[in-house]
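subagent[fold] <- orchestrator: predict structure for attached chain, return tokens only, no commentary.
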Amino acid sequence: MTRSLKKGPYIDERLMKKLKSQKSGQKTVIKTWSRACTIAPEMVGFIFGVHNGKEHIVVSVTEEMVGHKLGEFAPSTRFGRHGGRMQRELEQKTEEAEAAKLKAEKPAAPSNNKAK
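subagent[fold] -> orchestrator:
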């Protein structure tokens, strides 16, 4: 559900205060825990460190990001993978096939044993 048009987008006031104290071209990272903050046009060109629950992920804001949330660009969960035993078996077969392919490609090195 989107936010009411009457209220306007949520922009963290403390974050805007930090933006006003810095210049757009600076390379300093602005750390924030406000993942729900909407990216405003004033934020373009700044570099943010968005907290993902464990560490701050560096996000460089561009014009295409305006209107999105800061948290969209700092994933908080890591995708493990799908599948269980069947997936492991398939991966093991592909690894064995690659190893056999590499072994077949590697020619036997000629010996340099010359009699004097």
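orchestrator: received. Logging for downstream: Residues 13-73 form a domain with the 30s Ribosomal Protein S19; Chain A fold (CATH 3.30.860.10). Residues 85-105 form the longest helix (21 residues).
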